[in-house]
Design goal:
It comes from Algoriphagus sanaruensis. Its EC number is 2.10.1.1. Pathway: Cofactor biosynthesis; molybdopterin biosynthesis. This is Molybdopterin molybdenumtransferase. Catalyzes the insertion of molybdate into adenylated molybdopterin with the concomitant release of AMP. The model has no long low-confidence stretch (mean pLDDT about 95). This protein has about 400 residues and is of the alpha/beta class. It has helices at about 5-15, 155-160, 200-210, 225-235, 255-260, 295-315; strands at about 1-5, 25, 40, 50, 55-60, 65-75, 90, 105, 110-115, 115-120, 130, 145, 165-170, 175-180, 185, 195, 215-220, 240-245, 265-270, 275, 280-285, 290-295, 325-330, 335, 340-350, 350-355, 370-375, 380-385, 390-394. Strand 9 and strand 10 (about 115-120) form a beta hairpin. It has 4 domains: about 1-20 and about 170-315, MoaB/Mog-like domain (Molybdenum Cofactor Biosythetic Enzyme, Chain A, 3-Layer(aba) Sandwich), CATH 3.40.980.10; about 25-45 and about 135-170, Molybdopterin biosynthesis moea protein, domain 2 (Alpha-Beta Complex), CATH 3.90.105; about 50-130, Molybdopterin biosynthesis moea protein, domain 3 (Molybdopterin biosynthesis moeA protein, domain 3, Beta Complex); about 325-394, Beta-clip. It has a 7-stranded mixed sheet with strand order 1-19-21-22-18-14-17, sandwiched between helices. Bound molecules: ligand LQZAQKY5 and molybdate ion.
Length: about 400
């Protein structure tokens, strides 16, 4: 097990860890934001039939002359069986099938109608004008969306146009959350002396929802070794990714590390050169990943954003999860004495980022207005106002 490693090393270990690639079939209504597991193939041609792109008149281009006799009308949704007569036209509307024999549509604005006769300027007419040919969008068997592609409202529309009702996407990991601590109670109950409200649970749950994950199974456990061992065993039987908060430091009631080891979890590393979140532990058991997050609320959120979030997104097929960050100029000079990477709650204003007061790891107040975290690298003691810093939006 590695101990007290740099943020860079943590990210490289996590990026290189193998993540299983599983698939699931989801209805289109649940497909937004998911990533395709396999290419999507068109089961029908679209359009299925030649149809009009304009409200106007369908003609046969080869029929001579600059006028036609209007003999039929075809509405969108109709299925015309018209015996085409030379020199005629058919009144037609956008989306309506172009009858056999016709090959060109003239929009009605270009036509003068006198009785049942239309007149038009022959010079302006071209063969095939305003006819949307069958298969112009795609043919049967054609790949319409490649694998590993993010599904957007537009792509959902494309799939619906093909009559597709479900799509094979990269499966979401099943996430479990264990909250440790005798002092933790749910808001809505009365706080007794020594107790605090559970804030890590709601923060993590909503973050998972924001990432498009299902609600995690949640276990709450007292700081008793046997109980912690039992609950971890139960959770590992159910989940792909296990998150724990608290109990990972060095106190007499911090049982998470030994309890994970008793359950066969291999610690990959313990403790990171960062503030907040120093006592973070990450382990694995087969394909399962375990994050034991230090209990302080700012440590939990900071570690979640930096490490848990990109791992979960990668699990769901997002190949850019580790590289997505922006650089923003710092609004005020920042100094630090300790050689740790700092993750600081910060607010964006007029294109600059302000580091907020209240950076202690127990203090949730800056989260009320922060837009994300600024990273100040381990080796730097000062960063001048105006210098570019890496900023991670929530
Ligand atoms: N002697 C040392 N003590 C500590 C060290 C150290 O290196 N040596 N590291 C400190 C740092 S840094 C951190 S971070 C914490 C991490 O401690 P644990 O992971 O063991 O977490 P707990 O002690 O259980 O809790 C810490 C803190 O967080 C509050 N908490 C826990 N769960 C929740 C929750 N669900 N919602 C809201 N708040 C929660 C808990 O009440 C504590 O105040 O260790 C330091 N100690
Ligand atoms: O590293 Mo701890 O997260 O400072 O409080």
């Amino acid at each position: 097990m590695l101990e007290f490693i740099s943020v860079t090393q943590v990210k490289s270990l996590l990026q290189n860890s193998s993540i299983p690639r599983k698939s699931e079939q989801v209805p289109l209504s649940e497909a937004l934001g998911r990533i395709t597991y396999s290419p999507v193939i068109a089961p029908i041609p679209v359009p299925l039939f030649d149809n009009s792109g304009m409200d106007g008149y369908a003609i046969c281009f080869a029929d001579a002359g600059d006028s036609r006799k209007v003999v039929h009308m075809v509405q969108a949704g109709a299925s015309p069986s018209i015996e085409w007569e030379k020199g005629t036209a058919v009144r037609i509307f956008t989306g309506a099938p172009v009858p056999k024999g016709a090959d060109t549509v003239i929009q009605q604005e270009w036509v003068t109608l006198v009785g049942d006769q239309i007149f038009f300027d022959l010079e302006k007419i071209t063969l095939g004008m305003h006819v949307r040919k069958a298969g112009a969008q795609c043919h049967v068997g054609e790949e319409v969306i490649p694998e590993n592609t993010l599904l957007t409202p537009g792509s959902i529309g494309l799939l619906a146009s093909l009559g597709i009702t479900t799509v094979e996407v990269i499966a979401k990991p099943k996430v479990g959350l264990i909250l440790t601590g005798d002092e933790i109670v749910e808001s809505g109950t009365e706080l007794l002396p020594g107790q605090i409200f559970n804030s890590n649970g709601p923060a993590i749950q909503t973050y998972l929802t924001q990432l498009g994950l299902d609600l995690p199974t949640i276990w709450k456990v007292k700081d008793q070794k046997d109980e912690v061992v039992r609950v971890i065993r139960e959770a590992l039987n159910e989940v792909d990714v296990l998150l724990l908060t608290g109990g990972i430091s060095v106190g007499d009631f911090d049982f998470v590390k030994p309890a994970l080891e008793e359950n066969g979890v291999d610690p990959v590393f313990y403790k990171v050169k960062q503030r907040p979140g120093k006592p973070l532990l990450v382990g694995s058991k087969g394909p399962q990943i375990v994050f034991a997050l230090p209990g302080n609320p700012a440590s939990v959120l900071s570690c979640f954003i930096q490490y848990v979030k990109p791992v979960l997104l990668t699990w769901m097929g997002d190949q850019g999860a580790w590289t997505r960050k922006i650089e923003v100029p710092l609004a005020e000079t920042f100094t630090k004495k300790v050689p740790l990477t700092f993750f600081l709650k910060a607010k964006l204003e007029n294109g600059k980022v302000h580091i907020l007061p209240g950076q202690e790891s127990f203090n949730l107040l800056p989260f009320g207005i922060a837009d994300g975290l600024v990273e100040i690298p381990e080796e730097l003691e000062a960063i001048d106002k105006g210098s570019l810093v890496i900023f991670y939006p929530w």
